[in-house]
Amino acid sequence: MLILAVLSLVLSGGLFWLWRVLQIVHTARHAPAQPPTFMHAWIVFGKQLQNDLPDADFQQRLQRILRLTKEVPVPQSIFLLGGKTGSNNVTEAQAAEDYLLISDPNLQPYLLLEEASRNTLENLKQARDYLPERTLPVALISNRYHLHRCMVMAKGLGLNPLPVAAEAHWQATASNLLKIALEGFFVHWYHTGAFISKLLNNQRMLNKIH
User: How many separate domains does the chain show?
Assistant: First the structure.
């Protein structure tokens, strides 16, 4: 699927990638920093740790949680997603819980840790298994550059997601633009896999993305 994704980008002269990038930028610019209505759950995406600790982007996601608990009603569940990645000794979910509880120990009853997944799609598939009803609205909390991919995959899994940005506002920094360029490829790769799986009606492949 990776080869097909690269090949389709080459044959399109990069237009497929550009279209995905424009979609990602639109989501990044317009995603709200808090959910407009009550959410059944907040889903917080993990990110690879640096020496067992959340990096700057991951900390922004967790700081958004701490702000939201003071601004809007807290849902029944706050899902902290992410297993062990790289050479780290703790899971992303555990590091997130530790970070949050240092600032607000009262959050403990709301936190649910998912510690098996290693990427965004696995994050969402694991979170879906915790939800009693997929049609209930859930907030996806991540950095602005990452939210479009989260939304696309969540909808593909049959969830009813709303994006919530970790950052208060979008900033077109060199770092963010580079991340969006990479996200454009990841989103295209996902869409390529979904298209080919449906075209071939390959259940094994479909099970990976649904």
Answer: 1
